Amino acid sequence: MEMLLLGVWTLLALTPCPGTTEELFEVSVWPNQALVEFGQFLTVNCSTTCPDPGPSGIETFFRKSQLGKGPQWNEFVLEDITEISVLHCFFSCAGVQKDTALCITMYQPPEQVILDLQHEWVAMDEAFTVKCHVPTVAPLQSLTLTLLQDGRELHRKDFMSFSVASQRAEVTVNVRAQWENNRSNFSCHAELDLSPHGGRLLHGRSATKELRIFEFSQSPQVGVSSLLEVGVAETMSCEVTRVFPAQEAVFPMFLEGQELSPFSSWKGDAAWASTTIRAMETGDQELTCLVSLGPVEQRVRKAVHVYSFPPPVLEVEDTYLLAGTDVNVTCSGHVLTSPSSTLRLQGAPNISAPGEPAWFLFTAREEDDGRKISCEASLEVQGQRLLKTTELQLHVLCE
């Protein structure tokens, strides 16, 4: 019995007291705060105060490699850090394991800040959308996006309450177009505040986009005769009212697909253009005025009829005559006229039939000196009666 009691006391003396070893050693990690840019690496050193540590290492899902090892420390490098994670560094001492955690904050600067205007030209009183988004940025909770109009804050949004990393980093605001918005410059400013993680404030800015306001509600009006004579210059005008900005209205004009060269002008909220047209072929043709302003264009067409109607041909043997000479006067329609015109020759007894010449014969007398003879041709085109006159003067000489 004495020997048994002596063995028990000996075993108790050799067994360490529970909790004593845990209280005697610690595990620490350096750095104690880690801020790493996306895709970069991090060097980690784990150490312990245990004089004779057992198994040790780190737990992480990043690819790692050991740089060095000592009796009471391990050094590792973590490669290609692409997300926020927690690393665990552990040591065992006399059969007891302890670990400490390191929170690794991965960040991505807001290098690409994209501003989208729903439309860069917006009609007066219409709503338009201004949106800003950052495709890649982390951590999202540290981001603030500010929409600016002409350098003044239009809207601000932070993402502190966003807990899901997949949330889009974007801000959207709807604005109604007013005259004062015309030529406003919109931009977006991104701030990534890394100071709570031991970093600094990072900035990003979008390109500036200009907004244009317009009004274009009235259809253009074309001013030109519906009848055009071949080869004769005519003026064509095109006008539009209630248009803004009137000075930026553009007036392409065409005759049967051939572009013309108009001269444009504006005053107040009206704009107009005019050009000279010269049709060289007869028949039905089309004039087009296309008015464009920003993204909007309005087209107006007008059908015209091009006719040929040269003056009649008045013939006499000689305009300088001797008294008593017989004079034959003939008036005929021009060969280019189609259809045939009707002729009325001054002094002729009758009106000629369409297509037939008119003529008369008389004897020159002294009192015919200075006499004017005229021939009038009439032609009906598209329901309109057109007139052309040719005139000559006689000179009678006395012997």
Brief write-up:
The chain is mostly beta strands and 399 residues long. It contains two helices and 35 strands.
Describe what you observe in this structure.
By secondary structure, the protein is mainly beta. The chain is built from two helices and 35 strands. The chain has helices at 2-14, 20-24; strands at residues 27-30, 34-37, 42-48, 56-59, 63-70, 73-79, 85-93, 96-107, 114-117, 121-123, 127-134, 143-149, 152-158, 169-176, 184-193, 201-205, 209-216, 221-223, 227-229, 234-240, 243-244, 253-255, 258-259, 263-267, 270-277, 283-293, 296-307, 313-316, 320-322, 326-332, 342-345, 358-363, 372-381, 384-393, 395-397. The strands form nine sheets. Strands 10, 12, 13, 15, 16, 17 and 21 form a seven-stranded mixed beta sheet that branches. Strands 19-27-26-22-23 form a five-stranded mixed beta sheet, with no helix packed on it. A hairpin with a 2-residue loop joins strand 7 and strand 8. The radius of gyration is 49 Å and the shape is rod-shaped. The relative contact order is 0.09.
Structural class: mainly beta
Beta-strand residue fraction: over 45%
Helix content: under 10%
Could you list the spans in which at least 5 consecutive residues all have pLDDT below 50? 1-21
- Helix tally equals 2
Oligomeric state of the chains present here: single chain
Total number of strands = 35
